[in-house]
């Protein structure tokens, strides 16, 4: 899955610190990140150091506006949002030392050759998106300031503390004997088969979310809800919890209006498996298709 970057070690522990020239700078233009790559090879993109960024006339002195994000092994990563008047065109490409500087969208992080770079990039996007969406207090409108002791934003007037947005959500593989229910979305760019998924509501336990989402999306009842694994999914600011559940009763699928385009039962031998996909839903599909006992 996307977070499985061993043997590299990811450390999200908060630190109030300033960057060194050898640290990595994730320069943001809205939700685009400036990276270097061989011309035309987006999947080989790499992050820039502050030394490399400071060489660019448009973004000199960026260290003064940086915020610590996390470390991977001994490498530290910081976010930088350049002022509006200095923003470079998000589609602009410049040759630097034989490589192209390009603005990379968040979707590109799913396909980088170095998987750990993709995880680092999208995790940084989530944290930075939280920064951008919480510049001002939602109660009094005054600017929020960075905490010096934890990863939070504080209103000095209202004493409100804002923490990073993390939305709990479930993914559930519905099992009927030797069959698994696969679905396809009706209105999303992702057109491959997936499992039922949805966000938790206020006051819900995750198991209750499973039951509600299954009934809402495909009109089925489930039992024997069994936890599988979890996954941070920064593309949607989510923390995903994966479950398998047995069908409880009739297996006739009734699709919710507009949510899903398809809901089909597949035997293990029929399941279309995607070996490259880094999402929890794909791993769960592979796990069932490989013949594992998902209720052990």
From TrEMBL:
Pfam family, one: NUDIX
Keyword Transmembrane attached: no
Lineage of source species: Bacteria, Bacillati, Bacillota, Clostridia, Peptostreptococcales
Domain Nudix hydrolase, residue spans: 164-290
GO molecular function: hydrolase activity; metal ion binding
Protein name: NAD(+) diphosphatase
Cofactor: Mg(2+)
This protein's UniProt keywords: Hydrolase, Magnesium, Metal-binding, NAD
EC number annotated for this UniProt entry: 3.6.1.22
Entries under Gene3D superfamilies matching the protein: 3.90.79.20, Nucleoside Triphosphate Pyrophosphohydrolase
Organism whose genome encodes this protein: Aminipila luticellarii
Top-level EC class as recorded in UniProt: hydrolase
Keyword Metal-binding: yes
